[in-house]
Amino acid sequence: MVLLYFAAVFSIAALSSAAPLQCEGTVKPLIIEDPTEIFGKWFLLAAATDYKVYQDMLKDLQSSWIEFSPLTANTTVLNQGYKMNTCIWTSTVMNMINNSGVLTFEFLGNTTGTVMETCPECLLLDLTSREGEHLAHSFYIFARSRELRLEYREEYLKQLYCLGLPPPTYVDLDKELCPYNEKNASSTDVSKTGQRLT
Ligand SMILES: *[C@@H]1O[C@H](CO)[C@@H](O)[C@H](O)[C@H]1NC(C)=O
Ligand SMILES: *[C@@H]1O[C@H](CO)[C@@H](O)[C@H](O)[C@H]1NC(C)=O
Ligand SMILES: *[C@@H]1O[C@H](CO)[C@@H](O)[C@H](O)[C@H]1NC(C)=O
Ligand SMILES: *[C@@H]1O[C@H](CO)[C@@H](O)[C@H](O)[C@H]1NC(C)=O
Questions:
Q1: Which tens digit of pLDDT belongs to each residue from 127-144?
Q2: Does 98 contact ligand 1 (Cβ within 6 A)?
Q3: Where in the cell is it found (predicted)?
Protein backbone atom coordinates (compact mmCIF):
# COMPACT_ATOMS: atom_id res chain seq x y z
CA MET A 1 0.00 0.00 0.00
CA VAL A 2 2.96 2.26 0.49
CA LEU A 3 3.19 2.24 -3.26
CA LEU A 4 -0.33 3.58 -3.56
CA TYR A 5 0.36 6.49 -1.26
CA PHE A 6 3.60 7.22 -3.01
CA ALA A 7 1.81 7.27 -6.36
CA ALA A 8 -0.79 9.66 -4.97
CA VAL A 9 1.76 12.07 -3.57
CA PHE A 10 3.77 11.90 -6.74
CA SER A 11 0.71 12.56 -8.89
CA ILE A 12 -0.39 15.56 -6.92
CA ALA A 13 3.12 16.98 -7.01
CA ALA A 14 3.16 16.40 -10.76
CA LEU A 15 -0.23 18.01 -11.18
CA SER A 16 0.62 21.13 -9.23
CA SER A 17 3.95 21.74 -10.92
CA ALA A 18 2.84 21.06 -14.48
CA ALA A 19 1.36 23.55 -16.89
CA PRO A 20 -2.30 24.40 -16.22
CA LEU A 21 -4.37 21.29 -16.68
CA GLN A 22 -6.97 20.98 -19.34
CA CYS A 23 -10.10 20.56 -17.27
CA GLU A 24 -12.63 20.96 -20.02
CA GLY A 25 -14.52 17.71 -20.55
CA THR A 26 -12.66 16.01 -17.70
CA VAL A 27 -15.70 15.63 -15.48
CA LYS A 28 -18.96 14.76 -17.15
CA PRO A 29 -21.92 12.48 -16.60
CA LEU A 30 -21.85 9.05 -18.17
CA ILE A 31 -24.59 8.09 -20.58
CA ILE A 32 -25.82 4.62 -19.65
CA GLU A 33 -27.95 2.93 -22.27
CA ASP A 34 -27.98 -0.48 -20.65
CA PRO A 35 -29.21 -0.39 -17.04
CA THR A 36 -27.58 -3.75 -16.27
CA GLU A 37 -24.21 -1.98 -16.51
CA ILE A 38 -24.59 -0.52 -13.05
CA PHE A 39 -26.29 -3.46 -11.36
CA GLY A 40 -24.27 -5.89 -9.30
CA LYS A 41 -21.39 -5.50 -6.95
CA TRP A 42 -18.74 -2.78 -6.79
CA PHE A 43 -15.76 -2.25 -4.50
CA LEU A 44 -14.86 1.17 -3.17
CA LEU A 45 -11.32 2.16 -4.20
CA ALA A 46 -11.06 5.77 -3.12
CA ALA A 47 -13.17 8.71 -2.07
CA ALA A 48 -12.69 12.44 -1.82
CA THR A 49 -14.88 14.93 -0.06
CA ASP A 50 -14.78 18.57 0.92
CA TYR A 51 -16.66 17.89 4.15
CA LYS A 52 -14.48 17.41 7.21
CA VAL A 53 -16.90 15.05 8.99
CA TYR A 54 -16.88 12.69 5.99
CA GLN A 55 -13.10 12.97 5.68
CA ASP A 56 -12.74 11.76 9.25
CA MET A 57 -15.14 8.90 8.61
CA LEU A 58 -13.21 7.86 5.52
CA LYS A 59 -10.02 7.59 7.56
CA ASP A 60 -11.68 4.89 9.68
CA LEU A 61 -13.08 2.99 6.71
CA GLN A 62 -11.25 -0.27 6.12
CA SER A 63 -13.22 -1.65 3.19
CA SER A 64 -16.54 -1.24 1.47
CA TRP A 65 -18.60 -2.92 -1.19
CA ILE A 66 -21.93 -1.87 -2.63
CA GLU A 67 -24.46 -3.69 -4.75
CA PHE A 68 -27.17 -2.20 -6.93
CA SER A 69 -30.18 -4.38 -7.71
CA PRO A 70 -33.14 -3.50 -9.89
CA LEU A 71 -36.44 -3.02 -8.10
CA THR A 72 -38.80 -1.04 -10.30
CA ALA A 73 -38.21 1.16 -13.37
CA ASN A 74 -37.61 4.13 -11.08
CA THR A 75 -36.11 2.57 -7.98
CA THR A 76 -33.12 0.47 -7.14
CA VAL A 77 -31.92 -1.32 -4.03
CA LEU A 78 -28.51 -0.39 -2.71
CA ASN A 79 -26.94 -2.98 -0.43
CA GLN A 80 -23.72 -2.05 1.26
CA GLY A 81 -21.24 -3.83 3.49
CA TYR A 82 -18.57 -1.67 5.01
CA LYS A 83 -16.00 -2.18 7.66
CA MET A 84 -15.12 0.35 10.33
CA ASN A 85 -13.64 -2.00 12.91
CA THR A 86 -16.84 -4.03 12.73
CA CYS A 87 -18.96 -4.81 9.72
CA ILE A 88 -22.01 -2.74 9.00
CA TRP A 89 -24.61 -3.75 6.43
CA THR A 90 -27.25 -1.48 5.02
CA SER A 91 -30.01 -1.94 2.50
CA THR A 92 -31.70 1.08 1.02
CA VAL A 93 -34.28 1.72 -1.65
CA MET A 94 -33.34 4.69 -3.76
CA ASN A 95 -35.02 6.70 -6.44
CA MET A 96 -33.31 6.37 -9.77
CA ILE A 97 -33.77 9.21 -12.20
CA ASN A 98 -32.83 8.51 -15.78
CA ASN A 99 -32.39 11.71 -17.70
CA SER A 100 -31.68 10.48 -21.26
CA GLY A 101 -29.20 7.94 -19.93
CA VAL A 102 -27.67 10.15 -17.23
CA LEU A 103 -28.44 8.34 -13.99
CA THR A 104 -29.00 10.15 -10.71
CA PHE A 105 -29.73 8.36 -7.46
CA GLU A 106 -31.43 9.84 -4.45
CA PHE A 107 -30.03 8.34 -1.29
CA LEU A 108 -31.29 8.69 2.22
CA GLY A 109 -30.34 11.79 4.16
CA ASN A 110 -30.66 14.16 1.25
CA THR A 111 -27.83 12.84 -0.85
CA THR A 112 -27.99 12.71 -4.60
CA GLY A 113 -25.43 10.94 -6.72
CA THR A 114 -24.84 11.11 -10.45
CA VAL A 115 -22.92 8.48 -12.40
CA MET A 116 -19.91 10.10 -14.07
CA GLU A 117 -17.51 9.14 -16.85
CA THR A 118 -14.59 7.10 -15.60
CA CYS A 119 -12.43 4.06 -16.37
CA PRO A 120 -13.92 0.88 -17.85
CA GLU A 121 -15.29 -1.50 -15.19
CA CYS A 122 -15.37 1.45 -12.79
CA LEU A 123 -18.23 3.41 -11.25
CA LEU A 124 -17.77 7.04 -10.35
CA LEU A 125 -20.39 8.74 -8.22
CA ASP A 126 -20.57 12.50 -7.87
CA LEU A 127 -22.39 12.97 -4.58
CA THR A 128 -23.97 16.02 -3.05
CA SER A 129 -25.21 15.72 0.53
CA ARG A 130 -27.11 18.22 2.56
CA GLU A 131 -25.94 18.04 6.15
CA GLY A 132 -27.94 20.64 7.96
CA GLU A 133 -26.36 23.92 6.93
CA HIS A 134 -23.61 22.27 4.94
CA LEU A 135 -23.56 21.09 1.39
CA ALA A 136 -20.97 18.33 1.12
CA HIS A 137 -19.45 17.43 -2.24
CA SER A 138 -17.92 13.97 -2.59
CA PHE A 139 -16.49 11.94 -5.44
CA TYR A 140 -16.44 8.14 -4.91
CA ILE A 141 -14.74 5.71 -7.26
CA PHE A 142 -15.70 2.02 -7.28
CA ALA A 143 -14.66 -0.86 -9.54
CA ARG A 144 -15.70 -4.40 -10.32
CA SER A 145 -12.37 -5.64 -8.97
CA ARG A 146 -10.21 -4.40 -6.15
CA GLU A 147 -7.54 -2.65 -8.14
CA LEU A 148 -7.03 0.83 -9.50
CA ARG A 149 -4.49 0.97 -12.27
CA LEU A 150 -2.08 3.86 -12.19
CA GLU A 151 -3.42 5.50 -15.34
CA TYR A 152 -6.98 5.42 -13.93
CA ARG A 153 -5.83 6.73 -10.59
CA GLU A 154 -4.20 9.62 -12.42
CA GLU A 155 -7.44 10.29 -14.26
CA TYR A 156 -9.41 10.28 -11.01
CA LEU A 157 -6.91 12.66 -9.38
CA LYS A 158 -7.18 14.98 -12.33
CA GLN A 159 -10.95 15.03 -11.99
CA LEU A 160 -10.66 15.88 -8.28
CA TYR A 161 -8.21 18.63 -9.09
CA CYS A 162 -10.53 20.06 -11.72
CA LEU A 163 -13.44 19.99 -9.28
CA GLY A 164 -11.39 21.70 -6.60
CA LEU A 165 -11.79 18.72 -4.27
CA PRO A 166 -9.05 17.70 -1.82
CA PRO A 167 -6.90 14.60 -2.43
CA PRO A 168 -8.75 11.33 -1.90
CA THR A 169 -8.61 8.76 0.85
CA TYR A 170 -7.57 5.42 -0.65
CA VAL A 171 -9.13 2.24 0.63
CA ASP A 172 -6.50 -0.33 1.55
CA LEU A 173 -7.34 -2.96 -1.04
CA ASP A 174 -5.64 -5.69 0.97
CA LYS A 175 -8.01 -5.27 3.88
CA GLU A 176 -10.68 -7.87 4.45
CA LEU A 177 -14.17 -7.24 3.12
CA CYS A 178 -17.32 -7.71 5.11
CA PRO A 179 -18.90 -11.01 4.16
CA TYR A 180 -21.47 -10.95 1.45
CA ASN A 181 -24.37 -13.30 1.87
CA GLU A 182 -27.90 -13.94 0.73
CA LYS A 183 -29.28 -12.87 4.06
CA ASN A 184 -28.07 -9.32 4.01
CA ALA A 185 -27.29 -8.71 0.41
CA SER A 186 -30.54 -9.39 -1.34
CA SER A 187 -33.41 -7.16 -2.30
CA THR A 188 -35.87 -9.37 -0.41
CA ASP A 189 -34.47 -8.02 2.85
CA VAL A 190 -35.37 -4.41 2.13
CA SER A 191 -38.52 -4.43 4.23
CA LYS A 192 -36.43 -5.32 7.29
CA THR A 193 -33.40 -3.13 6.99
CA GLY A 194 -34.14 -0.54 4.34
CA GLN A 195 -36.17 2.55 4.18
CA ARG A 196 -38.43 3.41 1.36
CA LEU A 197 -37.98 6.74 -0.28
CA THR A 198 -40.89 6.43 -2.63
C1 LIG B 1 -32.55 5.54 -19.75
O2 LIG B 1 -33.58 5.90 -20.61
C3 LIG B 1 -33.28 5.65 -21.98
C4 LIG B 1 -34.40 6.21 -22.79
O5 LIG B 1 -34.49 7.60 -22.54
C6 LIG B 1 -33.07 4.18 -22.18
O7 LIG B 1 -32.72 3.92 -23.51
C8 LIG B 1 -31.96 3.68 -21.28
O9 LIG B 1 -31.87 2.29 -21.35
C10 LIG B 1 -32.23 4.08 -19.84
N11 LIG B 1 -31.06 3.78 -19.06
C12 LIG B 1 -31.14 3.19 -17.89
C13 LIG B 1 -29.83 2.97 -17.20
O14 LIG B 1 -32.18 2.82 -17.39
C1 LIG C 1 -40.35 6.54 -14.04
O2 LIG C 1 -39.47 6.47 -15.13
C3 LIG C 1 -40.10 6.64 -16.38
C4 LIG C 1 -39.07 6.49 -17.49
O5 LIG C 1 -38.02 5.68 -17.10
C6 LIG C 1 -40.75 8.02 -16.44
O7 LIG C 1 -41.45 8.16 -17.65
C8 LIG C 1 -41.70 8.17 -15.27
O9 LIG C 1 -42.19 9.51 -15.24
C10 LIG C 1 -41.02 7.88 -13.97
N11 LIG C 1 -41.98 7.91 -12.88
C12 LIG C 1 -41.78 8.60 -11.77
C13 LIG C 1 -42.85 8.49 -10.74
O14 LIG C 1 -40.76 9.28 -11.58
C1 LIG D 1 -33.71 16.60 4.10
O2 LIG D 1 -34.41 17.70 3.53
C3 LIG D 1 -35.67 17.95 4.12
C4 LIG D 1 -36.30 19.10 3.39
O5 LIG D 1 -36.30 18.86 2.01
C6 LIG D 1 -35.48 18.28 5.59
O7 LIG D 1 -36.75 18.42 6.20
C8 LIG D 1 -34.74 17.13 6.28
O9 LIG D 1 -34.44 17.48 7.60
C10 LIG D 1 -33.42 16.85 5.57
N11 LIG D 1 -32.76 15.67 6.14
C12 LIG D 1 -31.47 15.67 6.46
C13 LIG D 1 -30.95 14.39 7.01
O14 LIG D 1 -30.74 16.64 6.31
C1 LIG E 1 -25.11 -10.22 7.61
O2 LIG E 1 -24.34 -11.39 7.53
C3 LIG E 1 -23.32 -11.47 8.49
C4 LIG E 1 -22.39 -12.63 8.17
O5 LIG E 1 -23.08 -13.78 7.76
C6 LIG E 1 -23.97 -11.54 9.87
O7 LIG E 1 -22.97 -11.68 10.86
C8 LIG E 1 -24.76 -10.27 10.09
O9 LIG E 1 -25.44 -10.31 11.32
C10 LIG E 1 -25.77 -10.04 8.98
N11 LIG E 1 -26.34 -8.71 9.13
C12 LIG E 1 -27.64 -8.43 8.95
C13 LIG E 1 -28.02 -7.01 9.12
O14 LIG E 1 -28.46 -9.29 8.65
A1: 999 988 999 999 999 999
A2: yes
A3: Secreted
